[in-house]
Design goal:
Number of helices: 7
Largest sheet: 6 strands, mixed
Radius of gyration: 17 Å
Structural class: alpha+beta
Strand content: 15-25%
Order of helices and strands: EHHEHEEEEEHEHEHEHEE
Strand order of the largest sheet: 3-4-2-1-12-11
Helix content: 10-25%
CATH topology: Deoxyribonuclease I, Chain A
Number of domains: 1
Length: 280
């Protein structure tokens, strides 16, 4: 677990977690249900759920005390995102107005009191293949949507937080073995440049990096192959991306890394951020 950055917190505290569950049915059998029951999060964003609503056990489909929004992929058994919130959303949205991607289980959104929360599962890609072309098409459509989302939220007096598996390590400090991954999907120059545009042109903030500007990491994904987890040879690809006013109120963050390899219920770890911000 990455030590939290402690600050003096004034007033309410809003806590949000994001995690790629690597299959919600499998995760529910290996510890996710227990983690959800114990978390202090007010909102949990999930990616790669890979399940239809009726396929999930009750404890994951409709856990007590949570309102659930699931957006499965039309390609059954793949992708899928979800948002669980302790308060009922004022409105929900699946997709972002894309003919190609709205039924692919890549994006869902919940409007809460004063806040719009999105759960994003950006395609992973594979350099030099059609999978990378798909990823680039998604990015080309999603960046303009982030601009529109920011503008709409401003008009409504709301802030935006897009959490999820962005599948891009932005800087060298965001992955352990960056020298050997310069030609790998997730660390390609054009992908990193696109993410810079999210922060510079669209005016969003990488909340965890603001709290931990030096790095390395904190990593949130470790391959199941080899000794990546044991050696902490990870990637930071799970982000909390917020509008400036909300980001200014980020007070602490933690990566909820499993204590050992055999205790993992996903190849990702939950990334949790607390904000000095009124709860919905």
């Amino acid at each position: 677990m990455v030590p939290a950055k402690a600050v003096v917190i004034l007033g309410d505290v809003l806590t949000v977690s994001t995690v790629n569950v690597n299959g919600l049915r499998a995760a529910a059998k290996k510890g996710f249900v227990e983690w959800l029951a114990a978390t202090d999060a007010d909102v949990v964003c999930m990616q790669e759920t890979r399940a239809e609503y009726e396929q999930l056990p009750e404890a994951a489909r409709a856990p007590q005390g949570w309102h659930t929004l699931l957006a499965p992929s039309s390609d059954k058994g793949r992708s899928g995102v979800a948002i669980y919130s302790r308060t009922e959303p004022e409105a929900t949205r699946i997709g972002f107005g894309s003919e190609e991607f709205d039924d692919s289980g890549r994006y869902a959104e919940a409007e809460l009191d004063g806040l719009v929360v999105g759960s994003l599962y950006l395609p992973s890609g594979e350099a030099g293949t059609p999978k990378q072309d798909e990823k680039e098409r998604f990015m080309d459509e999603f960046l303009p949507y982030l601009h529109r989302l920011r503008d709409r939220a401003r008009q409504q007096g709301k802030e935006v937080l897009v959490c999820g598996d962005w599948n891009i390590a932005h800087q060298e400090i965001d992955l352990k073995n960056w020298k050997n991954n310069r030609k790998s999907a997730g660390f390609l120059p054009e992908e990193r440049s696109w993410l810079s545009r999210v922060f510079d042109e669209a005016e969003y903030v990488d909340v965890v990096r603001r709290l931990f500007p030096e790095g390395p990491g904190p990593y949130s994904w470790w391959s199941y192959r080899g000794k990546a987890f044991d050696n902490d040879s990870g990637w930071r690809i799970d982000y909390h991306v917020a509008t400036e006013r909300l980001a200014e109120h980020a007070s602490e963050t933690r990566v909820e890394r499993a204590p050992s390899y055999d205790k993992r219920w996903s190849d990702h770890a939950p990334v949790t951020v607390s904000f000095d911000w009124p709860k919905p």
